[in-house]
Write a structure and sequence with these properties.
CATH class of the largest domain: Alpha Beta
Number of strands: 7
Number of helices: 12
Low-confidence stretches: none
Distance between the termini: 32 Å
Shape: globular
CATH topology of the largest domain: Rossmann fold
Bound molecules: S-adenosylmethionine
Oligomer: single chain
CATH superfamily of the largest domain: Vaccinia Virus protein VP39
Structural class: alpha/beta
Helix content: 40-55%
Mean pLDDT: 94
Largest sheet: 7 strands, mixed
């Protein structure tokens, strides 16, 4: 089971009360949703990964039957549309807990760089067009360098991309191990885990259009929240942090709380978690 890093804080800042409506934009394994439901709130849970919603429908059946939980496979970039469609208009809170949940590391989509035989896919949902392998096989050197350097912020980016381009002349990238072996060739052993974590996270962010999703999800939330409602965002990447900061500033919103911790998700690629509570 996935234990969200800031569970208590999320519940505290969302202040669920009987009948209050909330949107869990990143349902995952439902840790936040469960905490809200236990406090009598009503939840619309969204996840882009159909597997997460499928499991959620089994594990949360009791609350679905009580009509206190609606679970939808969807992209939170379309939060306004989804919320209106399912009658979640004036909600008290929206939570975005970005990144991976533990179970996704074992879904066979290549999310863990330790699972060398898995396909180098990294799509949350098969409906997305390009896999991570497609990016490695078909982007130009410059495009690939732009993706890896700017999203991973890894000091070995140039060497890694040069090695990828050399390698693909001989053999197309297909599996997680194909990329791991290339990275191993150019990154010093002591830095290897960090570089792999950053590079896989970078590819995942681009494959799934994650920065656009976040920008659009935040803007959409403003349309479905009631006055005084809150948006909670948990991020694991400096690019996401900048998007949230800019959003707060540009929209003149109130930042109620900002916390940061080392998430200690040993098996995950993501380490430093930041929580922001925004009031609208
Ligand atoms: C860190 S997990 C959330 C964990 C959840 N809070 C819990 O307690 O189990 C992030 C989830 O967000 C989902 N996700 C990522 N991007 C999304 C998007 N654009 N729209 C909806 N869900 C998304 C992922 O599939 C994943 O299940």
């Amino acid at each position: 089971m996935h234990t969200p890093v800031f569970l208590e804080k999320v519940v505290e800042y969302l202040e669920p009360i009987k009948g209050g409506k909330f949107i869990d934009a990143t349902f995952g394994e439902g840790g936040h949703t469960r905490a809200i439901l236990e406090k009598e709130g009503k939840v619309l849970g969204i996840d882009i990964d159909p597997e997460q919603i499928k499991k959620g429908k089994e594990n949360f059946k009791r609350w679905i039957d009580e009509e206190r939980l609606t679970l939808i496979t969807g992209n939170f970039s379309r939060i306004e549309k989804i919320a209106r469609r399912y009658g979640f208009k004036k909600v008290k809170g929206v939570i975005f807990d970005l990144g991976l949940s533990m179970s996704q590391l074992y879904e066979g989509k290549g999310f863990s760089y330790k699972r060398l035989e898995e396909p180098l896919d990294l799509r949350w949902n098969k409906r997305f067009k390009n896999t991570a392998a497609d990016l490695l096989n078909y982007l130009s050197f410059e495009e690939l360098y732009e993706v890896i350097a700017s999203y991973s912020e890894d000091p070995y980016s140039r060497e890694v991309v040069e090695e990828i381009v050399r390698e693909r002349r001989k053999k197309r990238f297909k599996k997680v191990g194909d990329l791991v072996r290339v990275v191993e060739r150019v990154v010093r052993k002591k830095d290897l885990d960090k570089s792999l974590r950053r590079i896989f996270q970078a590819l995942r962010m681009v494959v799934n259009n994650e920065t656009f999703n976040l920008e659009s999800g935040l803007l959409g939330s403003l349309k479905v929240l009631k006055k005084g409602g809150r948006i909670i965002v948990i991020t694991f990447h400096s690019i996401e942090d900048r998007i949230v900061k800019r959003f707060v500033k540009e929209k003149g919103l109130k930042l109620v709380e900002k916390l940061g911790i080392d998430s200690k998700r040993e098996k995950s690629f993501e380490r430093t978690a930041r929580l922001r509570v925004i009031e609208v």
